[in-house]
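Throughout this chapter, every protein is written as a compact record of paired, labelled lines. The reader may check this reading against the record printed directly beneath this paragraph:
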Amino acid sequence: MTTQALPDPGSNSRDRHGNMVPLERPHGYTLIMAHDHAHTGHADPHSHGIWTHGHVFLGHGHDRSESRAKLAALVTAIFMVVEISAGLIFHSMALLADGVHMATHVGALGLAAGAYWLARRHAANARFSFGSGKFGDLAAFSSAIVLGLTAVAVAGESIARLVHPAQVAYGEALVIACIGLGVNLVSAFILKDDHSHNHGHVHAHHNDGDNNMRAAYVHVLADAGTSLLAIVALACGYYFGLGMLDPLAALVGAFVIASWAYGLIRDSAMVLLDADADPKMSGAIKSTIEENLGARVADLHLWRLGPGHHGLIVSLVSPGPTTAEEIKTALRVHYPDLSHVTVEVAVCADCT
């Protein structure tokens, strides 16, 4: 840590090493700042390594998540090719249509896998000031928009079918729906982990869930749900002549998908816009500083750097001498998810 101060005009005080030393500010203030980067070109032989850290903010199990996304995309792509080939061989438009529909899922899963690859490839790229951990949130945001547009299209077509019923080949459609359900269940099993249960909502601790994996999982789960609804509706139409259930089931599925897509768009957008990662955590950090460390918080910014990683910039006013490193050490003991912390301390001699 280098201790720095903002000198008065014309004032310039340095220690024997050439470092800036704290100067008294007007009204009894002294400014001390700690940052986390090593100095380059420093003449001193001593190391600043203990204050230096990397900017790799990838989620826990990143490589495993990338492998799962690739495998799910591969499985879906194989079934897509089989379905399209069967449609061409047997002259089935239903098989062809479902094969083309499955191509959208290959694209979504490929997008998720690509985001993991890009995040890993650029993890040490200095151009990304706070790491590459948000590639997954960008992919999740894009995938959620596609999912939402799909829900709107399905809802529009369902309403049109309710107004103008169409002849449905129930037997063939049932087979296609069962195939689709099977493929999606296999992909969902590949993608599922301990945090995939949250669907369109966030229940993970401190919103640390992987939005990229969540988007891929929701995409597959949404299609599995619509396939299941379709199977029930088509069976009722085939055996009992209840043709209206087919568009009604699709309409219900569209609303469910839209709600999941909205939740995913909202959460990933908040991460991309550097919104407060967790207001409760921000309040707890402020309480820790003011009640346990005896300083007053003048400014605090908490945002998400990647799955399981948070960044914090905080400015404090302290009545007594303290160092930014002491504050940082105390915060990291209470909040281990703070991966990048910058602390500025202003010592106020007039404060009590």
